[in-house]
User: Fold these one by one.
Assistant:
Number 1:
Amino acid sequence: MSIARSNPIRIGAGLLLRIARAFFNAYRLWRLRSQGLQCGWNIYIDRRCKIGCPANVKIGAFSNIADAELYALDRITIGERTILGKGAFLCTASHDVYAPDFRLLTKPISIGSDVWIGTRATVLPGVTIGDGAVVGAMAVVANDVPAGAVVVGNPARVVRTGRACPVEFDPLSLATVDWRNSIKRLMTSLHQGPGTEPE
Ligand SMILES: CC(C)(COP(=O)(O)OP(=O)(O)OC[C@H]1O[C@@H](n2cnc3c(N)ncnc32)[C@H](O)[C@@H]1OP(=O)(O)O)[C@@H](O)C(=O)NCCC(=O)NCCS
């Protein structure tokens, strides 16, 4: 027997799970902020996300960082409502491969607001990604990406332009609690009583 999606027990359990996730997220943010990460309490960072040198990183409100890696030997700036997909890699460091001492070279990375970085995409040192841009899965971004562009491939090439930013979407609701909707759903289901058929 499967439990209907509208069943209050199922909705309540889902809500509890999301509350627990929000709680552990707050703990992670507290730890990272104490290491110098610049962000508010209104972002989500997955527990498997790796941030080297958090003091070099600034993340804007409502951004959602999955289990990405931020190798921040130089400054990384991320705007608001931006999503980093699973396995995305922001790399600020390289080496001078022509110098006899193979010296370390670092350059900052800047990512705008309302950007989506797809799964396993890599952003190389010095890159700026404009507001509303999308980086496709597995892309390797070596050059700047204009605002509203969709780029794919290695090296990343523009396949579309003029993407409008999704103004009514809250990336945080993907991971933690969308309080308004969750409570509304719970109240509706309590009112209607439990069901047993899936929707
Ligand atoms: C980039 C993406 C958003 C599609 O954007 P789109 O504007 O709808 O692009 P289309 O699907 O029309 O594809 C346009 C071209 O790019 C190619 N393409 C699309 N995504 C690609 C990718 N990730 N890598 C390489 N090429 C890609 C298509 O094959 C197509 O090529 P063609 O014109 O030669 O046929 C999507 O393909 C993508 O990569 N999504 C990310 C998925 C992800 O990371 N999910 C994580 C889960 S949270």
Number 2:
Amino acid sequence: MTNYSIFVVDDEAVAREGLALALSKAYQVQAFATAESAITALKEGVPDLVLLDIGLPGMSGVEALESMKKQYPDIVVIMITAFEDTETIIQAMKLGAYDYMVKPLKMDVLLSNIKSALETIAMRKEIQGLHEKYLKENLPCFIGESNAVQDVMDVVKKVAASPDTPVLIVGETGTGKELIAKAIHYRSPLFKGPLVSLNCAAIPKELIESELFGYEKGAFSGADAKGKKGLVEQAADGTLFMDEVGDLSMSAQAKLLRFLEDGEYYRVGGTQKRSVRPRVVSATNRGLPQMIVNGKFREDLYFRLAVVKIEVPSLIQRREDILLIAKHFLVQFNTKFGKSFNSISPEAETALTSHGWTGNVRELKNIIERAVLMADGVKLTPEQLGLSTPSHGMETGVERDTPVPRLSEKGVDFPALLESIERHYFEDALDMAGGNESKAAKLLRLTRDKFRYRRKKLYKKRSHTKA
Ligand SMILES: Nc1ncnc2c1ncn2[C@@H]1O[C@H](COP(=O)(O)OP(=O)(O)OP(=O)(O)O)[C@@H](O)[C@H]1O
Ligand SMILES: [Mg+2]
């Protein structure tokens, strides 16, 4: 028996008792012969669902619906009618009925409709609760309950409180770096000020300086005759978010560094020294340390930007968040496209949690959006998601019947077993990738850094063993 409670309101004793009996196997049921008695009982507690007959003596079902909705706007009511009276049904739906069913009721259809309605309601409540929680704590909504995300949010809270501290956000594409930048801005004391964004990769390199610092009239051909304020000025009393900061030219890097050190700058073509101090947040998915080695990024600028560095974990580093985020998007796109998906099938859940997610949260969002838009139904399947389940050996890449030693009475040396499995796959991956670490890391759904780190550890262990 679940914890769901249902009110059955029907004046016909046979129908009422039959229905109550059938439902009482799975739910807590209270039955009423009149609308008035059901409405009185609501004062003791509102059930998860009300099955309300339309043709009742005294107060009619539609009048009862109106009264219930007035007092308890969130109450979920399914109307039951003896015949398909379109006008009354339309009226009931307008008054906020969740659904309607026509007698005679087929018990199996009724039970499955009720189950699906309750699941939808439960998910809506769960997501609503989550939203309220996240909006309160994280404004804007950054979904994730894993330790990795909680650690990131802890740092966000701390740096947000200190608007003078530059923050660099790093992480793979689609992990939510921009969302983190917004969270820093809206949690900071400057939250009422502007959040001004500049995508350094989207603007031609030669225009970046005039975008950032503005220009004086006649600074270059095609320039606005009156001159223009730069983004640093627009962001005064707020936050300047420099996205894809790894794409800045060397010359723009030099000017940015000077600006970050003392807040001073010149407009392009100008001679008047100006000064302004917005909060600076930057982000990149490029490996800046490697770019420094290659002479493509200034080391002094890097240290200036990354006074605090926030590393946003990839989705596969926090698989426990995948379903939570998927459900969040399911509800969002259900509403957007007017669909009625209320759950994710167990196979689809497995497919989602074991997928590679190289595009991270953005990829997850896109997959759910496409599935909800294109498909119909209540339960999302792997086929609708366009993902195959790992039992087909597609997503884990491991054959299903790979033998794993069974646990015997003697127990097992688990660390040694894990290590041998790890070594086995690392060697296989390196063989397949012809020794290329980046390719091997990809085959194992690891970042290159993580791959190298673990490989080093394995190698060390082996040399210790040999010694
Ligand atoms: N934790 C999350 N909760 C809810 N939505 C998220 C979360 N993380 C990312 N998103 C959503 O995923 C999409 C991609 O996020 P975002 O643009 O912040 O990623 P990014 O790291 O800046 O990517 P890129 O490196 O490609 O610029 C956005 O639509 C964002 O709202
Ligand atoms: Mg981004």
